[in-house]
Amino acid sequence: xxxxxxxxxxxxxxxxxxxxxxxxERMAMARRTLAxxxxxxxxxxxxxxxxxxxxxxxxxxxxxxxxxxxxxxxxADGLSxxxxxxxxxxxxxxxxxxxxxxQDEGVMAADLEAxxxxxxxxxxxxxxxxxxxxxxxxxxxxxxxxFLRVSPDVE
Length: 155
Description:
Blueprint: H1 4-7, H2 24-40, H3 42-47, H4 51-68, H5 72-80, H6 93-100, H7 105-117, H8 125-140, H9 142-148
Helix pairs in contact: 2-4, 2-5, 5-6
């Protein structure tokens, strides 16, 4: 009997390598993060008392730390900003990551200002007339006008 992973492979294709485990440095970062979060967030501490649950939590967070390429300084910044997460919001990876790398509000404001300065051009007269005629045709269609309660004769 073949394994499911082998059944979907093409002939001559090697099986996929198992996912890499995070390196020791990322695992140590995850351990320090768990120690700090376990003391600050009671439900994380209670859910990771079991050895298996703790190992799963550490593995997942170490992988996230590795994929986000967070440094120890960024993790420390994130731990210091945890208090900014609203208490009504459960603390997960996304909220913690937002604490580690907060969005620069100045860039967002500058982007919005640039969008205001570069407004799209107004349509020319021919385009306006085409749109008006298309709207009149749509209103004249009984399948549409009966839902709008607008007389098609109204200008």
